[in-house]
Design goal:
- This protein has 516 residues and is of the alpha/beta class.
- It has three domains: 2-186, Class I glutamine amidotransferase (GATase) domain (Rossmann fold); 195-388, 3-Layer(aba) Sandwich (Rossmann fold), CATH 3.40.50; 407-503, GMP Synthetase, Chain A, domain 3, CATH 3.30.300.
- The chain is 33% helix and 22% strand.
- It contains 14 helices and 23 strands.
- The protein has helices at 11-21, 35-40, 79-87, 175-186, 195-210, 223-236, 254-266, 276-283, 289-314, 330-335, 371-380, 385-388, 408-427, 481-494, and strands at 2-6, 26-30, 45-48, 74-77, 91-93, 99-107, 121-128, 131-134, 140-144, 152-155, 160-163, 214-219, 240-246, 269-274, 321-325, 361-363, 402-403, 439-442, 447-451, 454-463, 466-467, 475-476, 498-503.
- It has a nine-stranded mixed β-sheet, sandwiched between helices. Strands 14-13-12-15-16 form a five-stranded parallel β-sheet, sandwiched between helices. Strands 17, 18, 19, 20 and 23 form a five-stranded mixed β-sheet that branches.
- Helix 5 crosses helix 11 (371-380) and helix 8 runs antiparallel to helix 9 (289-314).
- The protein is globular and about 80 Å long.
- It binds xanthosine-5'-monophosphate.
- Xanthosine-5'-monophosphate binds at residues 349-351, 392, 394-396, 436, 471, 508, 512-514.
- This is GMP synthase [glutamine-hydrolyzing].
């Protein structure tokens, strides 16, 4: 394993992903973890991430010198670089040399381990106030910029390396290459990690954990729960039962996709609960977004618990059903501070989230994986492309894409409009370019239009295509006008009561991706 020591900010996750892209397994640990504990994990290499502090700020995270003396190769980036410099006797000061954003880097020693085979001048992404003015003893300075004399250094003998910039961001042109040089050449690691290893390892682990007992899995139609279920199914076969709650807020064809395609690909035992009426009754008369979310979440848990209880009751020995499968991903684990001690950034409440008095033990086979890796695992398990490449869709479904009260008629109308938008985006080959494209019905708004020879008084549909890496921030997608035109024409022609299509051109922040 390669450990990525997290000094705050959001860099550590990106670094861990880049290491895995280099086919080396990585894990994130908090900078507060004692060095002895880090070393006990037997890391092949350690990477120190960037962070928001100045090394001289009061309470800034520090690092025990022992880390650099254990014979484990270390690569410091940005804050990690400065910490390495000061800990080992170099000089970092605030000489007014601030650099933010794209910066030209001059590589002064082309024979270096990190920069071998990369150009003497390269574009890198900087973000720092303090700067290193003298490298520690025994280190060679390998790069500089106009304002920073020491922008990279290395001590090849001790296997210690550092760069002032962020090689993990895509704006650092040779960043991935430099990282790979550290891993392969500096640390001597062979790139062998693949998702095939994960599948085999997880299947063995699940079998060991579950034994002869039974497990239940809630399927939402999303990628994560589908891949988790397929993996568990492969491990324990008919000991698994999946429950899919159809709350009537799904998009067109979604329930059928789970009922047919997913079952066909996995052979899973599936129980579909038709709860449309129950959800719509509970939502009647409600327009407030938060209230809608609460109602949907509450009803979902009730229906799911009831299905669980039925499955337990039907099982010969009820206590047999002891496990609940969850599609928890690595970012969820890191962000909720699970096991790593990092700050709680965002607790995402999923519909289907666990009631507090849960009596099941959890099976979470995707806990180590990033989203793109989950997709690869899904592919390996033979899941259909439509499931594996599915864009994110919120648990409360179309219920939070109707601004106003949720009714069956409005849902049907939105389902049509959404299906048209998805069809045209797919036809234009744009699915991979956008993160997701919520289609929103402004049910409480009406505007005047003219269709045929008559006046209409209909509702607008909003298109909200966004690009994003992690949904925490997003930008609106610059879709081709022809595609927008086609979607607009088809929706206004084919969907009754819609006489206007508008495009949302707001980034996140300030606007969230969903409208509610
Ligand atoms: P926002 O609207 O907060 O959405 O910018 C960020 C991402 O999360 C999805 N989303 C949800 N997913 N349950 C979910 O499983 C929810 O309650 C929920 N609310 C928003 C949204 O589609 C986007 O991908």
């Amino acid at each position: 394993v390669v450990l990525v020591v997290d000094f705050g900010a959001q860099y550590a996750q990106l670094i861990a992903r880049r290491v895995r892209e280099a086919r080396v397994y990585s894990e994130i640990v908090p900078s507060t973890m004692p060095v002895a504990e880090m070393l006990a994990k037997n890391p092949r290499a350690i990477i120190l991430s960037g962070g928001p502090s100045s090394v001289y700020a009061e309470g800034a995270p520090t690092l025990d010198r022992a880390l650099f003396e254990a014979g484990v190769p270390v690569f410091g980036m940005c804050y990690g670089f400065q910490l390495m410099a000061t800990t080992l006797g170099g000089t970092v000061d605030d000489n007014g040399a601030r650099e933010y954003g794209r910066t030209a880097l001059s590589v002064s020693k082309s024979g270096s381990t990190l920069f071998e085979g990369t150009p003497g001048e390269q574009s890198v992404w900087m973000s720092h106030g303090d700067a290193c003015s003298a490298a520690p003893e025994g280190f060679t300075v390998t790069a500089s910029t106009d304002v920073v004399p020491v922008a990279a250094f290395e001590n090849d003998e001790k296997k210690l390396y550092g760069v002032q910039y962020h090689p993990e961001v895509m704006h650092s042109t040779y960043g991935q290459q430099v990282l790979e040089h550290f891993l392969y050449r500096g640390a001597g690691i062979e790139p062998k990690w693949t998702t095939t290893n994960v599948v085999e390892e997880q299947i063995a682990l699940i079998r060991e954990q579950v034994g002869t007992k039974r497990a239940i899995c809630g399927l939402s139609g999303g990628v994560d729960s589908a891949v988790a279920a397929a993996l568990v199914q492969k491990a324990i076969g008919s000991q698994l039962t999946c429950v899919y709650v159809d709350h009537g807020l799904m998009r067109k064809g979604e329930t059928e996709q789970v009922e047919k395609d997913f079952v066909a690909a996995t052979g899973v035992k599936l129980r579909v609960v038709d709860a449309e009426k129950r959800f719509l009754d509970a939502l009647a008369g409600v327009s407030d977004p938060e209230q809608k979310r609460k109602i949907i979440g509450r009803e979902f848990i009730r229906v799911f618990e009831q299905a669980q209880a039925e499955i337990v009751a039907e099982a010969a020995g009820g206590e047999d059903v002891a496990f609940l499968v969850q599609g928890t991903l690595y970012p969820d684990v890191v962000e909720s501070g699970g096991g790593t001690g990092t700050a709680n950034i965002k607790s995402h409440h999923n519909v289907g989230g666990l009631p507090e008095d849960i009596e099941f033990k959890l099976v979470e086979p995707l806990r180590q994986l990033f989203k793109d890796e989950v997709r690869m695992v899904g592919q390996e398990l033979g899941l259909p492309e439509e499931i594996v490449q599915r864009q994110p869709f919120p648990g409360p479904g179309l219920g939070i894409r109707i601004v106003g009260e949720v009714t069956k008629e409005r849902l049907d109308l939105l389902r049509e409009a959404d299906a048209i938008a998805r069809e045209e985006l797919t036809a234009a080959g744009l699915d991979r370019d956008i993160w997701q494209c919520p289609v929103v019905l402004l049910a409480d708004v009406r505007s005047v239009g003219v269709q045929g020879d008559g006046r209409t008084y209909g509702h607008p549909i909003v298109l909200r295509p966004v690009s994003s890496e992690d949904a925490m921030t997003a930008d609106w997608s610059r879709l081709p006008y022809e595609t927008l035109a086609k979607i607009s024409t088809r929706i206004t022609n084919e969907v009754a009561d819609v006489n206007r299509v508008v495009l949302d051109v707001t980034s996140k922040p300030p606007g969230t991706i969903e409208w509610e």
